[in-house]
Design a protein that fits this description.
homodimer, about 325 residues, 5-stranded mixed beta sheet, about 40% helix, globular
Chain lengths: ~325, ~325
């Protein structure tokens, strides 16, 4: 049976799965990447995981390996350039060693691109031609997939749409701008705003978190579900920012759907009404309301599935 | 000799040209559309113009007609849906009558899309794969062309990127938002801001315009060239807004180049340094400085040339 290996390489964990050309995950396994121990250690860990999952699918006829790695990556050279979330992983060739070890082509993608492709293929974006994906977690990731192909930018680079500008008077961000979406609506931004707002206020958030400093996005969401007024206000604010970020995706691109995922979007139902209201408000010169806003469906497996699909796409191209 | 007809249909003028499959305009002619006299009058005017230009190229073997019309248009049905800038032109079939009269296929596009395709084909974007185009005039138009194909949005709609959000505390816009790029940096916005700033101030702008109320974007530009401090400050502000709008195009898409045109951009040299500074400031997480920012080259003929190319693209598709 023809199979693909999909690898989701993050700053903390690496997950490896055996995926069929129909997008089914036959088995998967994950481990801590312990990035600080260096890329050699990480690579050995990945090779061991691949060997382990392949052992569980003895009938697998491996066609290709796909990696979705926390960016930046140099796709053309097959190397990871990420000293930020993978310390010491600067200019590390990952494609060469894996290809040599397993004797198949290896494809390297940005992790947001891989996850978006997974969702477009067999997740929330299935059946749509133009699928935008936004992941809201520690950062905000963005990718666009058109007809099951990842869209790349100039020189093959990945567009960091999570840094789209929303408010030029907003907080400064490491992206160089002020008030980009990530600086306003990612997990840490929600936590910072909540701590500031909770200080000196009667709110269930402090009690739930244990201390003011321990309030994070999860606490905000949980307190809002419990009816805490301040938490509800914060959720409404974040929904407004997310809505405006999505409006910018719509005005510049009008995809068929926008899939929302990531840690913060586990509370999708809480943010959805606010987001929908912002989109509705901006539906005059563009048919914004025809764009479906959807929660992602593949959870932690989107990256593995999408990386496998990217490798399969490349394999098909080579053989056509 | 195989030829195409390109039509640029605006709210005030219509221009018709005979274009070769290499993008050369053999002849062109224009006339007032007098939209208020109704679509029947306009259509007859267009037909007369086509007949006139074809007379001037007796060896022309007409293959197809392309129209770039001031939006919104219904591309699938070939009809214009624009009671805003073409009063009484609501649901007007333009493709049918022209096709019947000239016996060739007729293709209808949005005018911003057509102009972008013209520039991507043989203008400033020539040789680039992903070409974004921004026209700054009475409104702000936006389009993206990839490998000589116009990018459409959901259900074939045109994305109105000129309404990308820049400042949620900015002026309200008919698009439903506040502080979109058009509401801050289009000609009328520049004029309004200049009149407000000039009131009670010593500035060459009032003298040049004749009165406070007569200050428009052209006066601002001309006064800035003359060294007027207030006009220079306004130009710097507008360059900042345009730069932020372009940064949003880059963060979400990272095209190979962004071509700037339209009336206000006739003073491209005046705005370019400010725009470049904003782009440079945002070049940390994306390779923004690798994206070329260029002035458009085809002037008033971009729409005619691009509409012809769009018709040619469709003709090639039909025959392949």
């Amino acid at each position: 049976m023809e199979t693909l290996i999909g690898i989701d390489l993050g700053g903390t964990n690496v997950r490896v799965g055996v995926v069929t050309p129909a997008g089914k995950v036959l088995t998967s396994a994950d481990a801590l990447i312990q990035a600080a121990r260096g890329p050699q250690y990480g690579l050995e860990r990945i090779i061991t995981l691949i060997e382990q999952v392949l052992t569980l699918v003895p009938e697998a006829n491996l066609r290709a390996i796909g990696i979705g790695a926390t960016g930046p990556v140099d796709r053309a050279r097959g190397s990871i350039q990420n000293p930020y979330t993978l310390p010491t992983w600067e200019d590390v060739d990952i494609v060469g060693p894996l290809s040599a070890r397993f004797g198949v082509p290896v494809d390297l993608e940005n992790d947001a691109d891989a996850a978006a492709l997974g969702e477009a293929w067999i997740g929330a974006g299935r059946g749509y031609s133009r699928v935008a994906a936004v992941t809201v977690g520690t950062g905000i990731g963005y990718a666009l997939v058109t007809d099951q192909a990842i869209e790349y930018g100039v020189d093959g680079a990945h567009a960091e749409g999570g840094h789209v500008l929303i408010d030029p008077h907003g907080p400064p961000c490491y992206c160089g701008g002020r008030g980009c979406l990530e600086s306003l609506a990612a997990g840490p931004a929600i936590a910072a705003r909540a701590q500031q707002a909770a200080s000196g206020n009667a709110t269930a958030m402090i009690q739930l978190a244990g201390s003011l400093e321990a309030i994070d996005a999860r606490v905000v969401v949980q307190s809002a579900r419990g009816g805490d007024a301040l938490a509800c206000k914060l959720v409404a604010e974040v929904a407004e920012w997310l809505g405006l970020g999505i409006v910018n995706i719509l005005t510049l691109r009008l995809p068929d759907c926008v899939c929302l995922g990531g840690g913060v979007m586990q509370a999708y139902d809480l943010f959805a009404p606010g987001i929908a209201a912002v989109v509705a408000r901006h539906s005059i010169v563009i048919p914004a309301e025809r764009v479906k806003i959807l929660p992602m469906q593949l959870g932690g497996l989107a990256g593995v599935i999408g990386a496998a699909r990217a490798a399969w796409n490349k394999d098909q191209e080579r053989n056509s």
